């Protein structure tokens, strides 16, 4: 995990991809979003989506999984090099959540994260605050998902 001082606006990380299959779309929907167009191919075809559509929350959850796995991979590499691992703080929230296009069974979504702003915390000088745009694009390069996330990041040094 990187410290606040290691980050810069424009830093982009490719997080990986997730395959949305009919089986995993239905399994997620049964547990968390049991709407007909997420559960049944025919109901999906009859809807505005035109096919079995992944829940937006499924799309967001896949993004979160890949973000966490990327951070764990970075931390393991840093530990292997004997570096101090920066443990990020909580997220105070996100905004501008958008599902731009439907994600249908058979789609593969690739996720990325790009830093859009950085600032030191006024009330907690040991922390910085990062905002990053998270996006998902389908196999045709079309934007299907995005949101702006905020997180607390530890500072390596604190100005006095």
From TrEMBL:
<dbReference type="Pfam" id="PF01575">
    <property type="entry name" value="MaoC_dehydratas"/>
</dbReference>
<feature type="domain" description="MaoC-like">
    <location>
        <begin position="19"/>
        <end position="120"/>
    </location>
</feature>
<dbReference type="InterPro" id="IPR002539">
    <property type="entry name" value="MaoC-like_dom"/>
</dbReference>
<dbReference type="InterPro" id="IPR029069">
    <property type="entry name" value="HotDog_dom_sf"/>
</dbReference>
<dbReference type="InterPro" id="IPR052342">
    <property type="entry name" value="MCH/BMMD"/>
</dbReference>
<protein>
    <submittedName>
        <fullName>MaoC family dehydratase</fullName>
    </submittedName>
</protein>
């Amino acid at each position: 995990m990187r410290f606040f001082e290691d980050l810069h606006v424009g830093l982009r990380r490719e997080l990986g991809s997730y395959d949305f299959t009919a089986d995993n779309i239905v399994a997620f929907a049964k547990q968390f979003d049991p709407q007909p167009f997420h559960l049944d191919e025919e109901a999906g075809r009859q809807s505005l989506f035109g096919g079995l559509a992944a829940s937006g929350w499924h799309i967001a959850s896949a993004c979160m999984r890949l973000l966490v796995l990327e951070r764990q991979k970075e931390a393991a590499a840093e530990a292997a090099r004997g570096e101090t691992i920066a443990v990020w703080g909580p997220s105070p929230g996100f905004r501008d959540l958008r599902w731009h296009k439907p994600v249908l069974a058979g789609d593969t979504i690739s996720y990325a994260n790009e830093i859009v702003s950085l600032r030191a915390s006024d009330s907690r000088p040991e922390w910085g605050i990062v905002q990053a745009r998270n996006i998902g694009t389908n196999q045709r390069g079309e934007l299907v998902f995005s949101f702006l996330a905020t997180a607390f990041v530890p500072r390596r040094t604190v100005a006095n």
